[in-house]
Fold this protein.
Amino acid sequence: MAHIRILLADDHTIVRQGLRKVLEEQPDWEVVAEAGDGRDAVRQAEQVKPDVAIIDVAMPLLNGVETTRQIARRVPGVKILALSMYADEAYVTQILDAGAIGYLLKDSADVDLFQAVAAVAKGKSFFSPAVSRRMVEQGAQRGDVAVDRYLTLSAREREIFQLVAECKTNKEIAALLFISPSTVETHRARIMDKLDIHSAAEIALYAVRRGIIH
């Protein structure tokens, strides 16, 4: 397994200690910094430039959403995994929009932590199973008519839709499909128009609801 350098940000020392102990059971994983508040997390990310930052959604001085937004802007190479007690779609949407690519529930961290960090380190999305179920339930409760719109996508659009949901960049998608980045961008625009969604984060949530990614 590749060497992964990790930043842990949570205002509860016991939580950080527990996560650190579990993470460092992997011989190639190293916790290179810890932070107890959002502002310190941003500073640490800028200083140590970790591969993965695990960011608690609720932190003092600067909340997890704003912390994520600042890290994503200032240290764009860092892959961000959100850590939260809440499975509601509103929390998930906010922090994905800010730049996180994974969302891990604290009560499932002992089971899902390794999978979550490994996925995010590779640039792939990760959602705790309970989060995926919750988003499907919330979509069903509001009678989400957008679900049917997925069937209007062409085969190529569905292919690109999944790659975008998996957090691939236009350049990466272009290389995989042997097309130009501008063609990928055109497809993305059409996909978002057809599905009436407005960001890559919404594409990821939509994909989870349909069971395309987990």
